[in-house]
Design a protein that fits this description.
alpha/beta, 8 helices, 5-stranded parallel sheet, 202 residues, 5 strands
């Protein structure tokens, strides 16, 4: 089962994923936790280029994300799925559609074709959207981590990101589930676990 986690900055995805991995393993499932960008040595180098360096034009930004995604899917995600593991991925293809498409203005249909090429058609079985007002999320990350290049974008950019995620979720309700990320971390993790277990039980 391939589960992706999407949402605005500061929505609590990473914290929830750690709790979910422990809970699923306690239930006897084998779990592989990963993220985009930044998985493996290749992804780590691309993450540094994308998030820690200076200005990057939207087209170059997109191509770096797609390069990371192609390598990530082929060398890590597909092998884990073939071994019967539940893959929990912090951000995936939908983030490119939202950040580079809805927020940066890159053609969305081109983005979708690029994602299909990079993933060879692999799509998540479930996408959990951690929905949160971006002003709340940005206030969280200003207190809890060193801000990266995307974090430092203006509030209007982050509002476009949230709107983009909500729009994508409305287009594919069978795949997307929207969760209230204003909840306490334990409650949010429990909601996410319930969604995953219900899919596994089908």
């Amino acid at each position: 089962m391939f589960v992706t986690f999407e949402g605005p900055e500061g929505a609590g995805k990473s914290t929830a994923i750690r709790g979910l991995a422990s809970a699923l393993e306690a239930n006897g499932h084998r779990v592989f936790v990963t993220r985009e960008p930044g998985a493996g040595s290749f992804g780590t180098k691309i993450r540094a280029l994308l998030l820690e360096e200076g200005d990057v034009v939207p087209e170059a930004e997109l191509l770096l994300f797609l390069a990371d995604r192609a390598n990530h899917v082929e060398t890590m995600i597909r092998p884990a799925l073939a071994e019967g593991k539940i893959v929990l991925c912090d951000r995936h293809a939908d983030s490119s559609v939202v950040y580079q498409g809805y927020a940066r203005g890159v053609d969305i249909e081109f983005l979708k074709r690029g994602n299909a090429f990079a993933t060879k058609g692999l799509k998540p079985d479930l996408t959990l959207l951690f929905d949160l007002d971006p002003s709340v999320g940005l206030s969280r990350i200003s207190e809890g981590r060193d801000n990266n290049r995307l974090d430092r974008e203006p509030l209007a950019f982050h509002q476009k990101v949230r709107d983009g995620f909500l729009d994508l979720a409305s287009q594919e309700p069978a795949r997307w589930v929207t969760l209230d990320a204003t909840k306490a971390p334990d409650a949010l993790c429990a909601d996410a676990l319930s969604e995953i277990l219900s899919r596994l039980g089908r």
